[in-house]
Amino acid sequence: MQAPVSVIIPCYRCTQTIERAVASIVRQTLPPEEVLLIDDCSDDEGKTLDLIYRLQHELRDSIAMKIISLESNGGPAVARNAGWDAATQPYIAFLDADDEWHPEKLKIQYEYMRGNPKIAVTGHEYSMLPGGKSTLHTYSASSCKDISSLSLLFKNRFPTSSVMLKRNVPFRFASGKRYAEDFYLWQQMAFAGFPIIRIEAPLVHYYKALYGAEGLSGQLWKMEKEELSNFLALYRVERINWFLFIVAAGFSVAKHLKRLLVTVFQRYGSQST
Questions:
Q1: What would the pLDDT profile of 87-112 be if each residue is shown by its tens digit?
Q2: Among 171, 186, 207, which residue terminates a domain?
Q3: Same-domain check for residues 66 and 179
Q4: Which residues contact 42 (CB under 8 A, 6 or more apart)?
Q5: Are residues 144 and 69 in the same domain?
Q6: pTM to 2 decimals?
Q7: Counting beta carbons within 10 angstroms of the beta carbon of residue 31, is it exposed (0 to 12), middle (13 to 18) or buried (19 or more)?
């Protein structure tokens, strides 16, 4: 049996991690119908593209994998949208190339959504494993939390690699954004009235800090500017009023300053040891 789910993985210079991500899909107790790997025009002399084609060939008897190669680099929003447009299944799950799923992730999340058809979007918690190995625990969807639109103004309640949604929801990632594009999508759906649920189980493993590390998560100011632009966009389409805009923006700036301090102390501590 397979879940009617299309898994979308943006791939950009990910030769060090993509095999681990794909392996976590193969290990699912309820595997998906298809996996779409979107090469976002990786500038690594074809290494990423060659590797995902090799994985497609080696795993052809285990899982159906489709590869889309973009002609120009557009960032994760563009890559995910390309996969979304090509997906054939009624449900979509997102996985980033440097993350890893718990083996029960798709089974738990899909069965919850099938049993609650009014829910269009679900996410779940995550665990941090920087430099470590994942350990298996048994989880279920016995504990869930409603995520309100107001709460999503102040915090991204789940990472992209935790999200499963119905393919036909009338939204997409904002193609012009390279940071906080996932956060904005959840906000759009929440303020449009779509119920959003978080399953209180860490069904995805992260191997680097969500901020303060190299790569996308290390670009704190760029992330902050995009988060502020989310609030402005919601205000302009009258999803929030001016008071909520000011409060949300102020809270976001305060979080940004805190993250800057944490990052500085982390780097100072590592240099002094």
A1: 999 999 999 999 999 999 999 999 99
A2: 207
A3: yes
A4: 11, 12, 13, 14, 48, 49, 73
A5: yes
A6: 0.91
A7: buried
